[in-house]
């Protein structure tokens, strides 16, 4: 009995607390969404891209986008830079763009578009529920309910959603929808996939593409970096990438981690209803309890004063 | 003497007659019109014999193991070292024109034991093979170096007569 001193008691308490914490972590992880089982995806092989911009042209036609500033076979766009020296990004007029990166293995071209996350942050961030992750794998949005708050643009880890700044009356968010309306929901590949002369993009079930990607790495020793970008990043994306050079050399953020962005805010968001509903009631209760005696006393004083004037 | 000379000439002539079809079979056609996919670009008139020469007569450079000749890549040799010539010779005989069409995807899904699951479609088979070599050996690599753009192509790429009108400088402000 006397052996359980204060120090040991504290130690035990700390260990127990740690165990409880890890258990709750695991419980939280098991709740995470693994994605729709038969959802489709696209595997992008950067070693095949020759920068012909045919995918950009195909996207423009399929999505009925406005005319580009330059023809799609004008390759001077690869030298365009934004005000802060950044390469081209997706805009309201272009849901996909190809950029050139000069690497140790020569120029590498990379197609940029929505990665269609398994657990999309844009969807979580949208307070009018404009976004949907469809069972086919696409992250689509309803422009009719979009209020143009642009929270999704801030939330997206890949900076994908663009905004129709040109519209004065009804500006909304614009981004790649994996050709959901016109192709994907009928089982057809996105327009860019079909148009590509080099088959840079392979369309298929996401779970098959993961196997295919690793097989391509195994069958071509030395050709690829042994990593499939998007297999695990931010909880997995429907679009995944193979590269012959380090991913951070070709415009990929390799610091995003493997947890969905949602996991960072899940605990906080779970607290919000508690704070908003339970706390007021709880603390009102405490307040009433704490002030009950004083109130009673005051009442009594009043009565006493009333009794003897 | 005279008889022997005649015999030799006769044999040579016979050989020559034999050699002509043999040589033709070995080197394939003079040119091949690649037109099955032509839409945005005009068909490619592929100079087959010139490319046989470039490949040093090694058909396997493009035709894999299917002609039963030439060197086989070590990965392929594991199964195909003795499989001989295949009946399929043209690219389109094996590489599907609609690689991501519902029909082919379904075929892949049902045939779970198929080894060649990552086989490029016809368009990619052409481009990967042709451009792969051209880029390595310094051959022409521009799109229109091999096939001229059609009018449909110009509309698609918004090029030529469909090119966007550039903003005249100074008129915007």
How would you characterize this protein structure?
- Chain A is α+β, with helices and mostly antiparallel strands.
- Chain A has a single domain (40-260), classed as Alpha-Beta Plaits.
- Chain A has helices at 6-30, 54-62, 121-125, 151-155, 191-195, 206-219, 261-307; strands at 40-45, 97-103, 106-112, 131-133, 139-141, 162-163, 173-174, 201-205, 239-242.
- The N and C termini of chain A lie far apart (63 Å).
- With 173 residues, chain B is mainly alpha-helical.
- Chain B is built from eight helices and two strands.
- The chains are: A alpha+beta (309), B mainly alpha (173).
- At the A-B interface, helix 2, strand 8 and helix 6 of A face helix 6 of B.
The average pLDDT score of chain B comes to 84
CATH architecture designation of chain B? Alpha-Beta Complex
State the distance separating the first and last CA atoms of chain A: 63 Å
Structural class of chain B: mainly alpha
Summarize the helix and strand pattern of chain A as letters: HEHEEHEEHEEHEHEH
- The helix fraction of chain A, in percent, is 25-40%
What's the number of helices of chain B?
A: 8
Q: What is the total tally of β strands of chain A?
A: 9
What is the strand content of chain A?
Answer: 5-15%
Extract low-pLDDT stretches of chain B: 13-24
Please describe the biggest sheet of chain A, giving its number of strands, its sense, and whether it closes into a barrel: 3 strands, mixed
CATH class of chain A: Alpha Beta
Instruction: Assign the CATH superfamily of chain B.
Output: Cytochrome C3
Question: How is the CATH topology of chain A named?
Answer: Alpha-Beta Plaits
Strand order of the largest sheet of chain A: 8-1-9
Could you describe the largest sheet of chain B, including whether it forms a barrel?
2 strands, antiparallel
Q: How many structural domains are formed by the residues of chain A?
A: 1
């Amino acid at each position: 009995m006397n052996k359980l001193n204060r120090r040991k008691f504290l130690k035990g308490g700390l260990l127990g607390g740690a165990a409880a914490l890890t258990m709750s972590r695991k419980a939280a992880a098991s709740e995470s969404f693994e994605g729709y089982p038969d959802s489709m995806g696209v595997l992008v092989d950067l070693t095949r891209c020759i920068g012909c911009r045919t995918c950009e042209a195909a996207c423009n036609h399929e999505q009925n986008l406005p005319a580009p500033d330059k023809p799609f076979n004008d390759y001077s766009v690869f030298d365009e830079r934004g005000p802060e020296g950044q390469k081209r990004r997706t805009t309201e007029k272009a849901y996909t763009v190809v950029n050139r990166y000069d690497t140790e293995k020569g120029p590498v071209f990379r197609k940029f578009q929505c990665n269609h996350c398994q657990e999309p942050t844009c969807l979580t961030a949208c307070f009018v529920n404009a976004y949907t992750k469809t069972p086919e794998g696409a992250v689509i949005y309803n422009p009719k309910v979009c209020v143009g708050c642009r929270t999704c643009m801030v939330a997206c880890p890949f900076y994908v959603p663009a905004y129709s700044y040109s519209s004065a009356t009804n500006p909304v968010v614009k981004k790649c929808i994996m050709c959901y309306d016109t192709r994907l929901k009928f089982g057809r590949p996105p327009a860019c996939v079909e148009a590509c002369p080099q088959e840079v993009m392979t369309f298929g079930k996401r779970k098959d593409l993961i196997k295919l990607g690793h097989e391509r790495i195994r069958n071509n020793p030395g050709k690829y970096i042994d990593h499939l970008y998007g297999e695990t990043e931010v909880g997995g994306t429907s679009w995944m990438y193979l590269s012959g050079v380090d991913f951070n050399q070709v415009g990929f953020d390799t610091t995003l981690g493997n947890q969905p962005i949602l996991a960072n805010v899940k605990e906080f968001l779970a607290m919000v209803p508690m704070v908003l509903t339970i706390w007021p009631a709880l603390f009102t209760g405490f307040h009433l309890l704490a002030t009950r005696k004083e109130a009673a006393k005051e009442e009594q004083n009043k009565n006493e004063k009333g009794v003897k004037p | 003497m005279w008889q022997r000379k005649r015999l030799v000439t006769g044999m040579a002539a016979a050989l020559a007659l034999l050699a002509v079809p043999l040589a033709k079979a070995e080197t394939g056609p003079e040119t091949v019109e690649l037109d099955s996919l032509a839409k945005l670009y005009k068909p490619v008139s592929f100079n087959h014999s010139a490319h046989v020469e470039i490949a040093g007569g090694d058909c396997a450079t493009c035709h894999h193991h299917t002609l039963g000749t030439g060197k086989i890549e070590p990965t392929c040799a594991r199964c195909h070292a003795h499989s001989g010539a295949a009946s399929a010779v043209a690219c389109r005989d094996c590489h599907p024109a609609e690689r991501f069409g519902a029909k082919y995807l379904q075929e892949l899904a049902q045939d779970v034991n198929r080894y060649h699951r990552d086989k490029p479609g016809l368009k990619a088979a052409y481009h990967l093979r042709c451009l792969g070599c051209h880029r390595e050996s310094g051959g022409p690599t521009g799109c229109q170096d091999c096939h001229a753009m059609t009018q449909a192509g110009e509309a698609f790429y918004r090029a030529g007569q469909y090119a966007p009108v550039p903003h005249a400088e100074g008129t915007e402000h």
